[in-house]
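Predict structure. Chain length: 1018.
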Amino acid sequence: MDDRLDSTMEGIAIIGMAGRFPGADDVAALWRNVLAGQVAARPLSEQQLRDAGVDPARFADPDYVRVAYGPHDIDRFDAGFFGFTPREAETMDPQHRLLLECCQQALDDGGHAPAQFDGLIGVYAGVGTPAYMIRNLLPEPGLIDAIGTLQFSIGNEKSFAATKVSFKLGLQGPSVNVDTACSTSLVAVHQACQSLLSFECDMALAGGVSLNVPVDEGYQFHEGGIVAADGLCRPFDHRSQGTVKGAGAGIVLLKRLDDAIADGDRVYAVIKGSAVNNDGAQKVGFTAASVDGQAAVIAQALGVSGVPADGIGYVEAHGTGTQLGDPVEIAALSEAYRATTARTQYCALGALKANIGHLDIAAGVAGLIKAAKAVEQGVLPPATNFEAPNPAIDFPSSPFYIPTQATPWPASFDARRAAVSSFGIGGTNAHVILEQAPLPAPSPVPEGAHRAVGTATPRSQLLVASAKSAAALADTVDALATALGGNDVAIADAAFTLQAGRSHHRFRCAVAGADGASAAEALRREMARAGREAHARKRRVVFMFPGQGAQHAGMCRGLYEHEVVFRQTLDQCAELLLPELGCDVRTLLFADDDPRLKQTRYTQSALFCVEFALAQQLRAWGIQPDLLIGHSLGEYVAACVSGVLSLEDAIKVVARRGALLDALAPGGMLVVPLSEAALQQVLAEGGEDVAGCVVAVVNAPTLCVAAGPVDALERLRDRLAPRTECHLLPASHAFHSPMMDPALSAFGDVMRGVSLLAPQIPLVSNVTGRLLARAEATSADYWVRHLREPVRFADGMDTVLDGGAAVLIEVGPGVTLTTLARQQHGIDAHVVCSCLRHPRDASSDHTALMAGLAQAWMAGVEIDWRAFNQARRGQRVGLPGVAFERRRHWIAAPGQVMPPEAVPCALAATAAVPSGVLPRDDMERTVADVWQAQFGIARIYVDQDFFELGGHSLLAARILVALEERSGVRLTIADLFGAPTVAGLANRLLLAQVDEADDALLARLLAEIEGAPEPLAG
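Prediction complete.
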C-alpha cells in the first residue's frame, strides 16, 4: 500500500485543455463562440455534398438535412512530428491522429513535457466508430495486403488509440481505452481521477474523439427519431426537435491539486468529485434514459465532492434537445438536488450541444471544458437557441433557470462551482463537480536574488522555442511572440514554462529578454537572421577562459545578485583569497571604479575568481565542457576546472603569481596585425630601435602581440604605421617576455609547493598549442615556461577546431576570445558565443549570460532545465505550444472528390535533407519502388535513411518480403538495419545474388564431378 494514500486530497486539478471543435480550432475559440452564442452549423451546398460522395438522390430527399458540425482539415496531419511515415498516416484512423495532436497540445497548455516530468502520466481516452476505415480504406483494392493486416489493425482499431498516444509521447502510466458511447470522455475523466487518487499515475490525459467521415455530410431526418429536422439543437426549449450530429475532440490534463500547486501549475478548475453508474434494466428500453439512474449518479458525485446542491451555480447538462430526454434530465437533476435544498431557480443551466452539436464520444469532455472555462472566468455562459422553456419542464419549481446572456457569476455563492453531466446510450452515466481554483500564491522571490555593492541590476530571462521543422518553428515563434507582446504574462513565468514545460526539438530559437515586448521583438529578430540551421548532431562544448585585460569595473555584478552557484563559488574563492590578497576581492569587483583592479596583483586574482565561478555555474546547469583552453592567465582557470589544480592551490598560485609579476619592472604590450613570421622579421630588422621587444602572443594567423619596454613598443608602432595600424594594450607589464625572467625562479618554487595532477578534462596548452600532456601538467617546469614563453593561442585553436564541430563558449568577462576565435581558419563550421558583456555594452552581465546561453542552446548545447530553474520557482502559464506542420494524408472514399492540396506531400519532418540523387541502376530502382509503396512517398533518393523516414521493425519486415518477391533474394532485418539507405540495401541485394549464384555454380560442379544428378533450382 502506498503510504501517500493517507494524505488529504483537495481535489483533482485541470491544468491543461485542448480540443478541435466545430467552428473552433482550440479551447479559446470555443469559449469565445459560447459567449457569443454562436452556432457552428455549416450549410452544405449540393456541390459539397457531391464532392463528399453523397448520392444526389439522397440529398434530394426533402428530409435530408444539409447541415454539418465538425472541425475542418481532418484530412491533414503532422505525420513527421509523431514519427509516422506518410503511408502509415494515410492508412490511420483520423480519430487516432486527432487524439495524438490534442494530447500533445494539452501537455503544452499545461506546461509539462513528459521527458521533464518526474512521475507517471496516464491516458484514458476513447474514439468513435472507425468510419474512415469502413468508408475509405476497406474499399481500396489491395490496401490491406500492401500494408499488412497487423499494421492496418494498429492504425484503425479502437483498442490501440490510447496506447498509441502513450507510445508516441513516451508516457508510462496506465493507458486505457474507454468506450461507453456518448458518455465515454466524461467516464474517461472519472477513471483518470480515480487513477490519480490511487497514485497509479501522477498526471493523466483524459477525453475523447469522434469524427464523422466525411465531415461535409448531412444526415437523414426521421420522424420520431432523435435528430432535429432543421439542423439546430435547442436544449430545454419549447421548439426542441432533437439533437444534431457533431464531430470533434477534447482532452484535459489532470493532476492532484496539491501537486499542481507545488509545481506552480495554472489551474483552470478543480474536480471535487465524480461518479459513474448504469441505469440497469429499470427503464423502458436499452436506448431510453432513466430518471433514477441519472439522479443516483448526480447524488453520488455531490456526496463524494462534499459540495451541497445549493453550492452549485451552473450545470452543464447533457442537453440533447429531445422532447423526452430533456424533461428526464431536469427531473433527475431536481430529484438529486431536492435531497439537500428547497431553493428554486438559483442555478444556471446550459448545454454545449446547442453550439456545436452532439460530439458523441467527445461530448462529455467538451462540456467539461466549457464548464471549466466558466468557473475560471467567473462567467455564466448564455444558452444558445433558447427562446422559451419546454412546456414539459417545470423550471419555476426547480433549482434551475436558463440564462439568455453572459452574466458575472453571482456573488451570493461562496465559491464558483459547476456540475457536468454526460449520459450514454446503453445507460452509463457520468457526473462531475467542479470548483474554482484556489488563488495562486504570489510568485516567490528567486533564491538567487542578492544585492551586491552598488545599484541593483535587472534580471533577464531566457526564452526558448523549438520545433521539428523550420516552417513549424517559424509558426511557433510567431505565435509565441504575439502572446508575449500582449504583456498579459509575467516574463519570468513565461520563461519557466518554455524551459521546463516543453519538449525541445531540433530546430530552435532562443533569446534573452527582460519583458514581454522586448522578448517578442527579439524572437522575431532572431528568426529573421539569415542562414538559420538546426543542430544536426551533437557538438563538443569548449570552454575558453580569457586572460588579463578582460577585466572591467562592476564585472559580474548581475550574476552575483541573481545566480546562486556563481555567488556561492565566488564567496568561497573570496574567503580562500583573503589571506593571500589582504582584502576582499568582491569589493574590487563590485565597485564602480577601484584603481586596484588595474594592478596585476589584484587583477589576476579577480579574473580567476570570476571565471572559475562562472564555469561552475554553467556546469551546475548541465553544460559540461568536453575541452578547455585558456589564454595566459586563463589556463590556470582551465587547469583548476580540469582537476590539475585544486581550488585552494589554484587560488594560492594565481595570487602569488600576480604578486611576483606586480613587483617586476613595468612594460607594455602592442597588438600587431601581422603573422608571427612577419612580426619576427620586423623585430629583426628593427635592431636597437626595438630592443627588448619579442613576440609574446600569437592570437590568430595574422594577429600577434609584441611585449617589451613601453618606449621600444612605441617605436615599433611608429615603424609599422605606414604598413598597418597597431595599438598598445592597457597592460601593466610585458607578459610572456624576457622582462618576466626575474620572477621565474620564485614562481617555480610556488609551483613545486602545490599538488599537480593529470587533467580530467582535456586541456589545450598555450605553450605548445597541443593537448596538455600528463607529464606537462604535473611538471612545475611547464608552468614556469608558461609564464615566460609566447602564448600560442592560434595553434591551440587549430587543435580545438580539428576535433570536429564545437560550440566555443567564452567563460569570462568581455568578448576578447570570442573575437579572436572568429578570426581562425575554419571557424565557420563552429559556433562561438560569450557569457559576459563588453565594458562598453550598456546591457547587464545577466542579460549577456542569458543571451550567450541562448546561442549555445540553439547550437545544440543541452541545458538541465530542472537545475536551471531550481532557484527560480516559476509558475506555469498558458502559452502557445508547438505548431504542427500539417499535410494531407488521406485516401478518398469511392465517389469522394478532394480539393487540390495547397502544399505537396513532403517527407516526414524529421527526415534528413536528401542529396537529390535518384536511383542509378535496376537494383536501386527496385529498392526505391518498394520504399515508395511502403512509405507512401512519391520520390525516394538513394541516400535517404530508413529510420529517418520513420521506419520501424514492422515496416522493415514488409519491405523485406516485398523485395524478396521482386528480386528473388531473401535478406534479413540485420541487412536492412546495417545498410538503411536505398543504395546500401541495393548493394546488399547484389552481393546476396552473387553469393547465391556462386553457391549454385559450386553445386553444379560438384554434381558433375561426383556424377550425381543436378539439384533442383532453389
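Summary: The chain has a mean pLDDT of 89.
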